[in-house]
Inverse folding.
């Protein structure tokens, strides 16, 4: 039989019959179904814990570290191996749920590309060394006799909190440095700044459960925004009795947008204009009182009449009126803004325009509440952003740094090419990477300190967005280290503090000892019940978190100056590039996890690759079809990706997902797809200094290469008129099926 | 790859969600010891080699390889001469899918005083003092795609089997493991392949759905 002509049905027939044959014949063949004896070791326990029974799982609580939302996790452990992660039902953050990134924590932990031993650069190449050698080198460069001056030392980390942050601060203080840069690509730094300025609280609590309507300007709150697992549950409450209405306005459809009742494609960069246009109708048609707002804001709202807004945003007047009607009639509502609003030079003002709607609609105090102040500022979270990345690049570029410690951040991968991060890092004579994987930054480091995975390490975590009560998430190891020569971050920090002769830390052998001691000094009010310190500690570990009261004040309602510029056109670069984040690969840190590579993108269903998402109209204009290769060129460089055509994007925009395009980072990530961050234009939000990641202008051209399929799940973007679940109306049911009295 | 020790890690499990086991046959270990001693001294010689009621033993033989173990553990001295019940050491068999290799602490429970002059016990004591369990080699195994549970088989053939004294559990163990009490270290004498399982399930009315074992 010609294999090319083999039909699916024939294939199944053959497989079916051969399967039966194998089963019947195979039953008694020892060679195929038995194992060789004496090849595997089966080791017993020395002294087992009373609760351990081989073959039966024991559950331990810990805190997820796959993003900075800090979900509680229960890990099933059997025979000393962690086998499955699920959400901690008691955690107020995720309430027993866990997203695909949390579930995939196992593949971060068991990843075959983990770095097992410290590595030092000798004659230009990284060579394995012992911890003794590694720490001696660190001591000579940063120890108390190194003569390192504080302002020439920097630490670049991911979002960090809890006792790890305490140690980090103590270390910086011992060196006399203030250079702690906190970097996250997927962040909400602009929203935080706007909330701080307008409401007096950087992280207000969002009451989805009270809102009747949600209007979101690109805030992908069930995908990538702030605390997605928490918000997904909140969203389900919002959607039930009575069903809330979700309106999403953004240039590229996100997972949240796909769930919206009304999805509006805005021209990139015009979300703020749409917000002011809606405000205009709320005032003129629904009589919302804005006399309390500053005169300039009143005039601004008046100036955005429907004709003008329609023209700028590309959203039809009919839709704008409908959104305003829904908001005007159903109160309270909730207005949010995320990446597509933040990512421009006027990102701050765009988010402020959205926040202004909350003030006009009277949502402040109703659906926006004080998140409160965390009582222990030393443990509070240092939220990551991109302005710190720019500041770090600047410091390195100006040769202001002698030593840099990099933990959890991968600046060589996440920095746009125009920053020249690779070259700037070379200006730092001694770069230490605290990492588990050979990522782009580690590949350039002078010393690599291999980190234990978060399932092997201790820690405490305070997250930025906390619902209701505050909490400190507790992280405990679920199993012994897979590689004995990896160390926890806290353990290394304790060792570093000893090098600086900081007396307060000299008594601790390791991070565990420090943490035990730190827990005893927590205020008595936190302790779950009266009892010994041992009881408190055990209960904290069993529960997975400590509950802490946050002090709350009523929110303010202030306004800030808003000035939205015209979005200029450039015929040379007619499109805007959207580097879209997704729940999965995130900012690229999860590209080395095969489960997440295999999990299709929620919108395009593409696996194991990057793609260029364009509107059918754009595709027609360019004369491309799905799978054609497209070259996307900005003033900073170009990338090539296969075309994916979808209606859920504005015709002026081209979206390329974040996360692929790694030059290093292990076998699953390396050399796969492209990284859109590389070709970003050097634009920043004028108020916050955040990278304006949606502002890049690009031109596109079809690359003449043989057509190749884009590998993705599902062949069709529509239900082609067929419903997935067939439904009939109640009337029709009465008429045709005999009604409720009739039993079929 | 060796199995990691919990005891060296100071982490704390969630006990309320903790274990999944049924808890239906929790006999204190000490009672086994007493039974074993009693049986060994008085009763067993009289009723030795009783057959398992309500059971048709599986048919099939196999001659496995001689597996060299770190210590030549004499099953015969323990189970035959001293009549110690199999489940005294393989205590997890009735609670879990695996029978479990006894923890080294269990060996030392007796051998810190018994037969301490013997070569094998000296070797065991060495391991114990190094805080290392002996690296036993696996003799009986089924592939990862087969779900076999000791717990359910013991329930069917011993604990829920009327007229089956628990003292004779070795007769049931022998269905799949052969007469281990006549061996020193375990030697595989049954094929433990699908046909072997299938025929026994057929004869004894065991479940026959594919997914019962392949799940």
């Amino acid at each position: 039989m010609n294999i090319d002509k083999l039909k699916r049905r024939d294939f199944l027939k053959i497989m079916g019959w051969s399967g039966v044959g194998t089963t019947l014949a195979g039953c008694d063949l020892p060679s195929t179904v038995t194992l060789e004896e004496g090849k595997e070791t089966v080791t017993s326990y020395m002294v087992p814990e009373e609760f351990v029974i081989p073959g039966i799982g024991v559950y331990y609580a810990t805190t997820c570290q796959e993003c900075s939302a800090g979900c509680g996790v229960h890990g099933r452990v059997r025979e000393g191996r962690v086998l499955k992660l699920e959400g901690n039902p008691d955690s107020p953050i995720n309430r027993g749920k866990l997203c695909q990134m949390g579930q995939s924590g196992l593949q971060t932990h068991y990843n075959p590309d983990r770095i097992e031993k410290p590595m030092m650069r000798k004659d230009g190449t990284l060579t394995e060394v012992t911890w003794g050698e590694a720490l001696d080198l660190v001591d000579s460069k940063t120890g108390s006799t190194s003569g390192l001056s504080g302002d020439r030392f920097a630490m670049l980390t991911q979002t960090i909190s809890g006792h790890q942050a305490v140690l980090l601060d103590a270390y910086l203080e011992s060196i006399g440095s203030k250079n702690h840069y906190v970097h996250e690509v997927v962040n909400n730094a602009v929203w935080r700044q706007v909330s701080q300025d307008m409401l007096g609280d950087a992280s207000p609590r969002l009451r989805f459960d009270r809102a009747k309507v949600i209007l979101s300007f690109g805030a992908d709150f069930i995908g990538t925004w702030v605390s997605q697992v928490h918000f997904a549950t909140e969203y389900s409450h919002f959607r039930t009795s009575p069903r809330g209405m979700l309106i999403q306005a953004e240039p590229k459809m996100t997972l949240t947008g796909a769930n919206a009742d009304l999805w509006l494609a805005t021209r990139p960069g015009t979300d703020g204009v749409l917000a002011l246009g809606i405000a205009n109708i709320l005032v003129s048609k629904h009589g919302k009182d804005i006399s309390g707002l500053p005169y300039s804001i009143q005039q601004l709202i008046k100036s955005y009449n429907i004709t003008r807004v329609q023209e700028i945003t590309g959203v039809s007047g009919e839709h704008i009126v409908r959104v305003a009607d829904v908001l005007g009639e159903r109160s309270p509502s909730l207005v949010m803004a995320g990446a597509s609003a933040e990512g421009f030079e006027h990102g701050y003002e765009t988010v402020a325009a959205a926040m202004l709607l909350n003030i006009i609609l009277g949502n402040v105090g109703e659906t926006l509440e004080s998140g409160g102040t965390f009582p222990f500022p030393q443990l509070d979270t240092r939220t990551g952003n991109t302005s710190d990345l720019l500041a770090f690049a600047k410091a390195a570029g100006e040769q202001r740094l002698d030593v840099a410690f990099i933990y959890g951040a991968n600046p060589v991968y996440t920095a746009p090419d125009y920053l020249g991060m690779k070259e700037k890092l070379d200006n730092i004579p001694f770069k230490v990477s605290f990492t588990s994987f050979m990522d782009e930054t580690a590949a350039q480091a002078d010393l690599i300190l291999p980190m234990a995975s978060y399932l092997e390490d201790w820690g405490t975590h305070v997250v930025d967005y906390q619902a209701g009560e505050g909490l400190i998430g507790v992280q405990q190891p679920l199993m012994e280290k897979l590689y004995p020569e990896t160390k926890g971050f806290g353990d290394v920090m304790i060792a570093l503090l000893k090098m600086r002769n900081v007396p307060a830390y000299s008594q601790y052998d390791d991070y565990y000892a420090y943490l035990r001691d730190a827990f005893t000094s927590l205020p008595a009010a936190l302790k779950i019940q009266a009892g010994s310190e041992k009881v408190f500690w055990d209960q904290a570990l069993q529960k997975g978190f400590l509950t802490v009261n946050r002090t709350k004040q009523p929110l303010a309602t202030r306004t800030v100056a808003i000035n939205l510029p015209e979005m200029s056109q450039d015929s040379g670069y007619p499109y805007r590039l959207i580097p879209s984040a997704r729940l999965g690969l995130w900012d690229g840190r999860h590209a080395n996890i095969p489960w997440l590579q295999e999990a299709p993108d929620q919108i395009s269903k593409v696996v194991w690759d990057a793609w260029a998402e364009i509107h059918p109209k754009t595709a027609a204009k360019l004369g491309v079809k799905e799978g054609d290769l497209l070259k996307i060129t900005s003033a900073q460089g170009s990338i090539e990706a296969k075309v994916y055509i979808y209606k859920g994007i504005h015709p002026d925009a081209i979206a390329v997902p974040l996360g692929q395009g790694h030059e290093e980072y292990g076998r699953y990530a390396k050399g796969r797809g492209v990284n859109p961050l590389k070709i970003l234009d050097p634009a920043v939000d004028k108020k916050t200094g955040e990278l304006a990641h949606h502002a890049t202008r690009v031109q596109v051209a079809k690359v003449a290469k043989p057509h190749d399929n884009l590998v993705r799940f599902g062949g069709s973007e529509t239900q082609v008129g067929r419903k997935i679940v067939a439904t009939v109306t109640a009337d029709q049911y009465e008429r045709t099926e005999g009604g409720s009295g009739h039993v079929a | 790859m060796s199995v990691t020790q919990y005891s060296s890690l100071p982490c704390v499990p969630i006990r309320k969600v903790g274990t999944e086991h049924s808890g239906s046959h929790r006999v204190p270990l000490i009672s086994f010891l007493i039974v074993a001693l009693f049986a060994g001294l008085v009763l067993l010689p009289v009723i030795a080699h009783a057959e398992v009621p309500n059971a048709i033993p599986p048919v099939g033989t196999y001659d496995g390889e001689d597996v060299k173990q770190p210590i030549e553990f004499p099953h015969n001295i323990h189970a035959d001469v001293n009549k110690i019940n199999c489940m005294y050491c393989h205590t997890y068999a009735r609670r879990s899918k695996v029978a479990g290799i006894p923890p080294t602490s269990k060996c030392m429970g007796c051998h810190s005083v018994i037969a301490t002059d013997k070569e094998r016990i000296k070797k065991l004591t060495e391991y114990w003092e190094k805080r290392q369990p002996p690296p036993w080699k696996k003799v009986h195994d089924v592939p990862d795609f087969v779900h076999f549970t000791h717990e359910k088989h013991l329930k069917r053939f011993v604990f829920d089997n009327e007229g089956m004294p628990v003292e004779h559990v070795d007769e049931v163990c022998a269905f799949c493991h052969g007469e281990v009490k006549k061996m020193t270290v375990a030697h595989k004498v049954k094929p433990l392949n699908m046909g072997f399982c299938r025929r026994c399930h057929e004869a004894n009315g065991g479940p026959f759905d594919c997914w019962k074992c392949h799940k």
